[in-house]
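Kindly review these tokens for lecture notes.

. . .
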Amino acid sequence: MAREMIQEGNWIVPHVNGHPDYEKPILWIWILAVFCLPFGVNEFTITFPCALAALGTVYVVYA
């Protein structure tokens, strides 16, 4: 979805294989797309925001 957002330039309605998808929350897709803009779409840019979110959750719970 993040890749298609970047390619098509449509940041409002997420698409999967050209079809609109309203099932997933759009904020997380926006975050992934923003990380993919400067670095390109690859495994690191998709997993890095997830790791940051996990570290943030651990910090909030245990701090």
Notes: The helical segments are 2-8, 26-39, 43-62. Strands lie at 15-16, 19-20. The two ends are 34 Å apart (CA to CA). The mean pLDDT is 91.
